[in-house]
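Here is the promised in-class demo. Please do not try to memorize the tokens; focus on the logic of going from shape to residues.
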């Protein structure tokens, strides 16, 4: 299944030892993330294509919800990941996720702030950090996965190399430039979409415009709603978006 071409393999088998093999797009199935589901206990684990485990995945949770509906015949679920709980409702062609908590505080995000090396200034939605005269303007947020958002075109190679030293658990980096979203995900590299990145961007766009944020690509969309007024607000986020079934099959390992 996929959402915005961010694709997922959903399986009820434990294939953790074969992730690198299965994720190869040239010689195997290929995917950005894989969901290993235990239907009896309604538990699952999410792994990136490099084998590292994800805390959450908003695009993937929507795809998983359609899978669970087909298997269990339900339209509503409470889905728990390692760090979050989602209230899920499946509509005709979309999935609604509620109860998404935004986290702005550095310690919870895993950002290593150093008084000796950095100067910082925070306004309503942007952080200005001066690393020994190297100024970076970005917004920072975690929805279970930590994200840094740049509202400009960036050199991803330099930024990823520079910023990953300052996040304990790694970080996803997104550029929003001329209404195009580009994301580098930890553990997956460049992906065609990232649900938590799109949602994080939506939160900051809402802070700027005070309106819902909707992102469209052809016949797919994601809509983010949030009633927060600043980065200290604890109100929950709601996301409605599309997802699509691609194919099912068997693979001998």
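The designed amino acids, position by position:
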């Amino acid at each position: 299944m996929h959402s915005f071409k961010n694709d997922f393999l959903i399986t009820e088998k434990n294939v953790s030892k074969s992730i690198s093999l299965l994720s190869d797009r040239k010689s195997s199935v290929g995917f950005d993330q894989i969901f290993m589901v235990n239907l009896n206990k309604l538990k699952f684990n999410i792994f990136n294509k490099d084998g590292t485990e994800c805390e959450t995945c908003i695009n993937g949770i929507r795809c998983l919800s359609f899978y669970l509906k087909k298997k269990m015949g339900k339209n509503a679920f409470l889905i728990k990941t390692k760090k979050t709980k989602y209230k899920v409702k499946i509509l005709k062609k979309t999935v609604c996720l509620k109860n998404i908590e935004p986290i702005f505080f550095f310690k919870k995000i895993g950002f290593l702030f150093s008084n000796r090396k950095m100067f910082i200034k925070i306004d309503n939605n942007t952080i200005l950090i001066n690393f020994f005269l190297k100024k970076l303007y970005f917004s920072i947020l975690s929805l279970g996965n930590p994200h840094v958002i740049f509202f400009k075109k960036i050199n991803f190679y330099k930024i990823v190399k520079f910023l990953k030293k300052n996040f304990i658990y790694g970080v996803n980096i997104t550029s929003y430039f001329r209404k195009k979203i580009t994301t580098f995900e930890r553990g997956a590299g460049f992906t065609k979409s990232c649900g938590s990145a799109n949602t994080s961007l939506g939160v900051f766009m809402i802070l700027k415009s005070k309106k819902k944020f909707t992102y469209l690509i052809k016949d797919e969309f994601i809509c983010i709603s949030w009633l927060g007024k600043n980065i200290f607000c604890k109100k929950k986020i709601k996301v409605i978006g599309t997802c699509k079934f691609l194919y099912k099959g068997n693979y001998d390992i």
